[in-house]
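Box S1 | Example of a co-folding query
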Amino acid sequence: MEQQAANLQSLSYSRCIDISKRVRWDIESDVIRGRHFDMTKKFLPDGISKVNGFEFLSSEEKRFLSQVQGRTYANMFGFVERFIVAKILELTSNHWLGDQVALKAMVRFCDEEIKHQELFRKIDEMMAEVMPPGYQFLFNPDEVAAAVLSKSTWSVMALILEIELFTREHYMKSMEPDEEMSDLYKDIFLFHWKEETTHAMIDELEWPLIDKKLSPEERDRAVGDVIDLVTDVDGILKAQSASDVDYFIEHVGGERPLAEDQRERLKTGVHQAYRWQYILSGVGHPRFVSMLNALTTEEQKQRLTGALSTLL
Ligand SMILES: [Fe+2]
Ligand SMILES: [Fe+2]
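Box S1 (continued) | Returned holo structure for fe (ii) ion
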């Protein structure tokens, strides 16, 4: 029975390798292809940026806000991928002397994420060439990764899975149907999610393996760690959204100063949009919910739901 389960596991990792080989791309020759960002086009689509909630902004201003958010969206991926690679590399040690197919799938996963970070650094530089000066991404990926990695592996896997699930969701539901987006921006996230497909599958294989090794007390503490991680991520989103709104206001304010209540609405609204982008759209994903249902008790789920409801 156990051998059968092990064979099935190995088959799933082997499927990940096949998919990963099929979708693999190159930054320059497949994604960028000599193109540049066009400031007459939106970066993030409305379904993700939620800019339509700001009825006091003109369509040009909404477009600029989608570009500011789009730059942060790309930077956020480059930034979370730092701790994702570190954690997955750490987990490969469970397969060093065992399932070599699993090991190969996870090495490819890490190689892809290192390439994604390179892509996101590159596009931040490309955006800096066409956007007004003053934009800031506030957080250092190594410092945040060190803080995340100090939490239990179970909780870090929860965070990683929710992130890797929303990449496809955001593309398919909001980017793919949006015809006013920058073609280059859209392509970046099309290629990105294709390589993320196998990452979410590997997370779904690895998280239960970690879970099996925990005592009920350790799992209970890990649930607390998930809540701490979500609170920390929300702190990052609050600071970054405030910085993005300041930058936005500085560059539209010259033409038409915004009223105090409009500035406040921008701060709250962009923070709320970021909460949806990086936390709520991932934890609400059906595959995340079903994994959580399999790994937690009713009481633990209530605790998590209670903590998440404060973000709404
Ligand atoms: Fe990635
Ligand atoms: Fe990934």
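The chain has a mean pLDDT of 96. The longest helix spans residues 216-252.
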